[in-house]
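Review form for a predicted model. The reviewer records the input and the model, then writes brief findings.
Reviewer: anonymous (R2)
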Amino acid sequence: MKSHPEKQFVAAAVAVDVALFCIKNQKLHVLLIELDRPEFPNKWALPGGLVTPHENLDEAVMRHLQDRGGEGESYIEQLGTYGDPDRDPTGWVVSVAYLALTTADTFVPKTSSRYKSVAWVSIDNLPELAYDHKKILADAVLRLKSKVNYSNIVFALLPHEFTFTELQDAYENILEKHIDKRNFRKKMLALNLLEEVPKVKATGAHRPAQLYQFKDRALHITQTV
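Model under review:
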C-alpha cells in the first residue's frame, strides 16, 4: 500500500463571533440568534460566521452585523480567539470573537431563512447557548465591566443626547451596583467628557431634565467610576 506523507498544515476555517450589546428598557441586552440546526436544537448563538477570502476580520464583523440588522454606528473591538478543535461539531473552526456596542434604536434585528429568529435578549435571562458562546459572552461581559471603570466606553451604548439619570442607569446596569448620584454627577462633570445640550427632556410629572452629550464619541482612557 502506498504511504502518504504527513501533511505539514491542517487547515482550519476562520470565523468571527460578536457579543453585541445595547441598553434596552434600562437593561443590558445582547443580540442572539435562535438556531435552526439539528445539532443545536432549541439553542441560541451570538451573531457571526465565516470570514470570506479577501476580507479582513473587522470587515467580516461588520458584514455579519449588517446582515442581522445593523445599519447604524457600532463600536467594535477584538475580544479574544477561541480555537478548541471540538467547539464546532461540523469541523475545526477557529473563532475571533469581538465585543461590540450599539444603541437599540439604530439596530433593529432582522432574521432570514437560515435562522428561526434574531432578538435582543436581557443578559439576566439568557437561553441555552450553542458552541462555546456561553464562555465568549461571559468574557465579553467581563471586558465591558472592566472598560466601563477606566474609559468612556458607555458613549457607544447611549443615544447622542441623554439625561444624567440615563447615563447613571447605564453605569449601574453594566456594573450591577448602586452608584451615589451626587458623587457620580460631580465626577463625570469634573472629567470634562460631557457638555450640555440646549434642550431638556420631559420626565413624567417631574421637572424637565437637562440633556447632555459626549464631547467626543471616541474611546478615551479615564477613571470614570
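Findings: Residues 53 and 60 are 10 Å apart (CA to CA).
Further findings: The chain has a mean pLDDT of 89.
Recommendation: see findings above.
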